[in-house]
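worker-03 picked up job from queue 'complexes'. Input manifest follows; two sequence lines, order preserved.
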Amino acid sequence: MCASAWASGPLVGSELYGERMSLAALELDLEVFSGPFDLLLTLVLREEVDLLELALADVVLAYLDHLEQRGELDLEMATEFIVLVAALLELKSRLMLTDEEQELLDVEPEQAAEELLARMLDARRYRAAATHLGELLAGEHGVRFRAAPVPVSMRRAIVPDLEEGMGAAAGGQDPQILGEAIGRLLLMPPTISIRHISTLRVTVAERLSHLRRLLRRGSFSFEEAVRGADRMTVAVTLFALLELYKRGEADWEQQESFGEIAVHGPAHQARDEVLTG
Amino acid sequence: MTVPEPELARTVEALLFLSSDPLSPAELADASQAGEGAVMAALAVLAEQYAAGRRGIALRELGGGWTFASDPATEDAARRLFSRPRAATLSPAQAETLAIVAYLQPVSRPEIARIRGVSADSATATLLDRGLIEEAGHSQFGAVLYRTTTQFLKLFGLRSLDELPDVARWDPTPEEQAQLRERLLRAGEARTGGGPGADG
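worker-03 finished. Artifact:
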């Protein structure tokens, strides 16, 4: 349904691309397709190329290469490209949604009407209740309550000295008291010691060497690697593990969500070990 | 109940005068070191002394306790003294939001918005600001929950939330409901049936 709405959109007509230097010039060489970008769009929309098999990241990379070659950024073309790729991404993510969720989205008109009705009744009910409250409030018109001042204990500044001083001076204010008051404000408050708070320092490098040490001994579970560690350390260890995976130094398996993560060296290395050991 | 000492009535009167919030019989009894029964009797004595029309002050039972309030007949003079009205009236959005909180408390802002069909952010903020509602923990999804305050009961002349009438009393009649349903269904059919199947 999305694709059809799309095809009628003004952006996809190829005559738009033929005239000026535009996205049509973007040549792609991808796994599932090679040719100009606008042809790819047409094929996707005719469902001749499976969007699910198309790596959109590669399209973006090809565009970036293209940009580099041209050496200048055509703002209009860039906008066009972003709009198109965003639409493709949305289309693709919709395709990836399971049918179950699709069912949730499509509500029968009758059911929708019932829901709407229930909501309208609710809204009506509380609108009437609001009118009632308004009447109550109007009925209390002219009733005031005592507004006691904030108790002394909660006031920001306590000035008993000042009050005493004013009493002593019998009507006149003693300037010295004001001087003392400002003097106290000018003093630097003592610094609060934070020595007892220690900073947590866990570095990826540190956890990397820890994991490598464990790897050298063979395979291990992630649980073992972080036994007794605090949350921060666990998180950083996971980063370190991802780093190892990226560098091809480790591989892992997890049978089920939240299950144990078994970490081992990459497959080829394991084979080497079997051969040598 | 024996006739309370006039002294207790005087003490209770003083406590009510000093407090800006309604005081419950328990609080009064605690402060004056008397039994709750004696305090209730003292309140009865005071109620008679402050009976309508006798003083510029009225003794009111509000928000789960007792409090002094000015006689509405004095409002004009009070307004001249304080040069502002006692409390601004509520906007329709604020009144609706307040009604939903009053009846469904504790209730979250998304829920209020769902019932009203429009966002309740600004109305909620104003009600919070005016001390009519307050935060009351979080829902299981992490949204802040709201409930009404003692201030709300005070300003609306309510002893407790139980004094609010049953909300079902504003439900439309079955005929009205049927009519509404009919109209909705017809609107729905018009939309799904007549929509252009623009496939190109």
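worker-03 released lock.
Chain A has 13 helices and five strands.
The two ends of chain A are 60 Å apart (CA to CA).
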